[in-house]
Design the sequence.
């Protein structure tokens, strides 16, 4: 099932999600640096990274929702997509609460802020796996013209392909 919102032939949601995932994961790394080494600046950086990750998540979410709405009802993909999206809402809420708890005490956040961030990161691992399940196993967001020798998406509309004994081949026009 091809993504409904594409840029240069590639799903927009899949392009955007790397930013919040990376920013929020990196905030946890800086929290660990602070916890292990006592660096107040690392905790401050974590606070800023959480803010950027939340913005990135809010930008990526609508495009994933549009793709999810296009998945046929009653399919495994629809159920996995609901868990993926719902789980990511919880991830963003956990990190948002952590960010809010840090306000005014960025250099020395309260313990609950760390607990919420670490819980959000753990859940993000699960929701990222679910996203991979959607793409890699269920083909959500994958072009129906995809194969190992497919043309670049920048070359214009893809030609239909036919599966044969030697693998995929282009169908003559």
Sequence:
């Amino acid at each position: 099932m091809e993504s409904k919102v594409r840029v240069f032939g590639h799903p927009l949601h899949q392009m955007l999600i790397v930013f919040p995932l990376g920013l929020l994961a990196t905030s946890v790394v800086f929290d660990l640096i602070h916890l292990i080494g006592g660096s107040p600046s690392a905790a401050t950086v974590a606070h800023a990274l959480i803010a950027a990750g939340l913005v990135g998540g809010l930008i990526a979410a609508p495009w994933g929702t549009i793709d999810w709405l296009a998945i046929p009802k009653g399919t495994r993909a629809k159920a996995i997509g609901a868990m993926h999206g719902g789980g990511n809402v919880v991830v963003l809420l956990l990190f948002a609460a952590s960010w809010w708890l840090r306000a005014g005490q960025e250099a020395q956040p309260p313990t609950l802020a760390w607990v919420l961030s670490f819980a959000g990161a753990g859940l993000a691992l699960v929701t990222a796996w679910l996203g991979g399940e959607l793409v890699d196993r269920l083909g959500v967001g994958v072009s129906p013209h995809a194969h190992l020798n497919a043309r670049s998406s920048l070359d214009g509309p893809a030609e239909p392909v036919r599966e044969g004994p030697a693998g995929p081949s282009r169908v003559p026009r």
Q: What stands out?
A: The longest strand covers residues 161-164. Residues 40-69 form the longest helix (30 residues). The CA atoms of residues 101 and 111 lie 9 Å apart. The mean pLDDT is 90.
